[in-house]
Design a protein that fits this description.
Elements (H helix, E strand, L loop, with lengths): L9 H22 L5 H18 L2 H19 L11 H50 L3 H16 L3 E6 L6 E2 L8 H12 L11 E5 L5 E6 L7 H71 L6 H32 L8 E3 L1 H12 L7 E6 L6 E3 L1 H18 L5 E9 L6 E7 L33 H11 L3 E5 L8 E6 L7
Parallel strand pairs: 6-8
Antiparallel strand pairs: 1-2, 1-4, 3-4, 5-7, 8-9, 9-11, 10-11
């Protein structure tokens, strides 16, 4: 707030000066019975001082001149005349004029500095708010809206912000107020031809970062301002424009980085897929070709048991190849959003029975145990997807469990939050997964090796498992068992209301 009122209009300041002269004259008329005439000049001096403090030099001189005339007319001899017959009267008039010039000049400078400080303080708050909004902006529209609001708050008039990138059409802030179409068209032309080939419309200020990015703001008509005030506003708007330009450049760079990261991830995914397919498909195919070739070329030299062993090897590798193909197809469906949930009511026991039938040919000496808690309600799920998800988790446990190891499947209903639902646990006795890698194993093509154990495969099984369970609104996570080594794969499925 200003410490005193500002009289920017000349006629208001003149009225104030005349009012101070009249008030001083009235006080002197009341005090002349108790004070000598020489002391009454101090009352007029006080009026001149107040006028100089509250206004500028010219109103103070007007007050001083009026005070000299009033003092000479009412309180010096001969009274009722403007004639000055004493040297003291001339000295008093000169003193009043000197006070008006000196104090008015000092007061004017002080007011200018105070108003400048007030403007800087207000602008600092506006700029700080703009920087906060720009730093949190996620798109160009948010930056333009922040710039538009800042300029509107600074100037007190309606404004609209726009920008244009290299080779891009001008874009306006998608918010009111809408300025006249003529001004908007002129502003768009100016931003498009920023080199100076077009005329700058009134009320438009803009900046360019030298790399083809132009930012501008168009303001509506404003009341006439002093040259100093207009210069302050223009300088402040330029600063706000530069801040918005930096924000737009940051968003553009973030977009470029995001696109570059997506391209790199896509290329990495393509390379990983080709590498995985070439390795994991070639291995079973090589075994199938070798077994088939041996069977064809040496059939007469092989006994029935050896021929059966070769045929079983072909069948096992063909099954393995089929699993790889199914995983790739499932991952493609998940990635493209083509996974449809044809839900139906089914019991978890029925799903586990199908899973056990599929997984038994893959068992190599491990012991499978299934434990179902009583009172498990029916599930309203896509049975084939839940079956595939559990199969992938169980298959992963088989790959890392030693011969003779125990793999447990536990199903129980959880009623405590946040784990309410059906909890399916697959517990193995393998080497386990470090806590730092438990989330990474759900990434595509992440394959964990454990010493000289068999290869983990394509690294898609757990990623597909999480995707299928997530499509049902469930969760998949890995924890450590309460005792011993190994890991626990937990599958949490939500239960539908009214299934008990």
């Amino acid at each position: 707030m200003q410490p005193w009122p500002a009289f920017d209009t000349w006629w208001v300041a003149a009225l104030f000066a005349l009012a101070m002269t009249a008030l001083a004259t009235l006080l002197c008329l009341l005090l002349q019975a108790w004070l000598p005439a020489a002391n009454l000049a101090l009352v007029y001096t006080t009026g001149v001082l107040l006028t100089a403090i509250f206004t500028r030099v010219v109103p103070a001189l007007l007050c001083a001149l009026g005070s000299v005339l009033a003092f000479n007319f009412f309180f010096t001899e001969p009274r009722g005349s403007l004639l000055m017959t004493h040297r003291e009267d001339v000295l008093t008039a000169g003193l009043l004029l000197f006070v008006a010039v000196v104090v008015g000049s000092l007061a004017g400078r002080l007011q200018t500095k105070i108003r400048s400080l007030e403007f800087r303080d207000r602008f600092a708050r506006i700029e700080h708010r703009l920087l906060e909004r720009v730093s949190l902006a996620l798109d160009a529209q948010a930056v333009l809206l922040a710039l538009q609001d800042a300029v509107t708050q600074l100037t007190g008039t309606a404004s609209q912000a726009l920008h244009a990138g290299k080779g891009r059409q001008p874009a306006w802030a998608d918010a009111p107020p809408q300025l006249p179409a003529v001004l908007r068209d002129a502003a768009e032309q100016w931003v498009s031809g920023h080199a100076g080939s077009t005329q700058t419309p009134a009320g438009l200020r803009g900046v360019s970062d030298g790399d083809g990015l132009h930012v501008a703001v168009l303001t509506s008509a404003t009341p006439p301002l002093s040259a100093q005030t207009q210069a302050q506003n223009d300088e402040a708007i330029d600063i706000l424009l530069r801040q918005a330009s930096l924000g737009l450049r940051r968003i553009q760079l973030l977009g470029d980085l995001a696109r570059e990261r997506i391209d790199k991830e896509r290329e990495l995914l393509r390379s990983s897929l080709l590498s995985s397919v070439s390795h994991d498909f070639r291995t079973p195919l090589t075994a199938m070709v070798g077994a088939t070739t041996t069977l064809l070329e040496m059939r007469g030299e092989l006994c029935s048991a050896q021929q059966d062993e070769l045929l079983e090897s072909v069948l096992a590798e063909a099954t393995r190849l089929d699993n790889y193909t199914q995983n790739l197809l499932d991952m493609t469906r998940l990635g493209q959003g083509e996974l449809r949930l044809d839900r139906s009511w089914v019991s978890i026991e029925e799903i586990l029975n199908v899973v056990m039938k599929r997984v038994r040919p893959l068992v190599s000496g491990q012991r499978l145990e299934v434990s179902l808690a009583p009172g498990i309600p029916l599930l309203r799920v896509h049975p084939a997807l839940i079956e595939q998800a559990i199969f992938n988790g169980l298959h992963n446990a088989l790959k890392f469990s030693p011969p003779g190891g125990r793999i447990q499947q536990r199903c129980a209903r959880q009623s405590t939050q946040p784990d309410a639902g059906l909890l399916i646990e697959i517990i193995d006795e393998g080497p386990g997964i470090p806590e730092s890698e438990r989330e990474a194993v759900f990434g595509m093509f992440h394959s964990a090796e454990r010493g000289d154990r068999r290869a983990a495969g394509t690294g898609l099984g757990l990623a597909i498992c999480r995707g299928m369970i997530g499509a049902h609104g469930g969760q998949v996570r890995i924890t450590a068992p309460a005792q011993g080594s190994g890991c626990v794969l937990q599958i949490l499925l939500p239960l539908q209301e009214g299934t008990t």
